[in-house]
Amino acid sequence: MTRVFSLLGRTGLFLSLLLSAQAAQAAEAVATLNLTGSGLGIAALAIFVLAYVLVISEENIHLRKSKPVVVAAGVIWVLVALAYAAAGESELAEELVGHNLLEFVELFLFLLAAMTYINTMEERGVFNLLRAKLVSSGYSLRKLFWITGLISFCMSPLADNLTTALLMAAVVVSLGGDNTRFVVLGCINVVVAANAGGVFSPFGDITTLMIWQAGHVQFQEFFVLVIPSIVNWVVTAGIMSFAVSNEKPASIQEEAQVKYGGWVVVGLFGLTIVMAVSFHNFLHLPPVLGMMTGLGILKLYGYYLQMRDAGYMGADTDLVSGDAAMFIDSAHEDEIERDGQPYNIFHNLQRAEWDTLIFFYGIILCVGGLGAFGYLAVVSEFTYEGLGPTTANILVGFASALIDNIPVMFAVLEMAPEMDLFQWLLITLTAGAGGSMLSVGSAAGVAVMGQARGVYTFFAHLKWSWAIALGYFASIGAHFLLNG
Length: 484
What we know:
Blueprint: H1 20-33, H2 39-56, H3 58-61, H4 66-86, H5 90-123, H6 126-135, H7 141-159, H8 161-176, H9 180-197, H10 206-213, H11 226-241, H12 262-281, H13 287-313, H14 345-350, H15 354-373, H16 375-387, H17 389-403, H18 405-415, H19 421-434, H20 443-451, H21 458-462, H22 465-483
């Protein structure tokens, strides 16, 4: 799972109290300037469209997605600076770009901590153990269809929808073998379940995370979306399950063992989540402070693992003294990784998907630049003021499927429409679950296409989009019925 976060397509937003007054003034000034019809504004829009076309063509042209958006971000902000200077507002461009950089830094650090934890659990073999248990179970294909979907739904709120989809898709491919029909249906089921499960937890989907960090919905308030999320998955899975045979796959015997300290890392990750929530809910501090504190604790535990391994191997390093042997537990010596060097937590830190993290920088700056020209205000006026929040939020789900919810959700938060809690929960549901309607509509779907390349394809997913759409509207109905 070296690509656990390689196609992560999500962004975050948190407004600092120190800059809130400046942000409000900036938004008002942007609306007053109305630069959407200017030549520079049109050029900025064209540059963004070109960059995003290259992003969605990544699988075909093999150009990493961060490259075009980073260049586009720089060019767009040059155009913003020129336009604002011509309007006599040269200092305002600097304030606006600083506001966007603040948003990126917080998201960057939050995801870096989460990625390091996930990579460490993977390296310790936690995920491999789950995979080995499932492929050796001997269940029928239909039962495995439901089990993999259920695990995806339950795991996604903590491990995030992308990691969950990649792990469970690997299981589905192993179980299906040459049965391409089961592999396709199982992969679609995993994608839908992972996206639905990520809706009611800020740690399950970055769209949920950004709404939480922006303060529109409190952590515990997301849990009212549990039943609508279940409806979203169960309706779709129930329809598709009739196409899954009841035969048993060929027996696969696979063993896996969690390395020393693996379960401790799982516990530390749980503690880190608690700290992030507590920092936000009780101390009114950004959740990223809790995540980074948890990362520091993980690094301290990594030091213990390093000393333990070094003492066992007899490594001669600056970090190891003659007393390192005190860390050795002879009962677990056979679990120590014998790769010629002690365990190093920074290896897991380095394995974070930097292309994805830099991609966030480009998207945030690009969308922020278009907002500076006034395009977001125009879209907001047409959708949320013209169509109303309910219709607009339902359309966000379809936009997420077509475009991806990265720019869509970030643009909505930049628009800052006046909505109550019910509507913010609705857009959380639609943005998270709506991307399942197309395989390219979510990072989970795109990643699984790479995992089951040639079998789970865009058109294979498209054949079942009608069933996913039924689940989508059923979940919206459940939200209105239960939370309206």
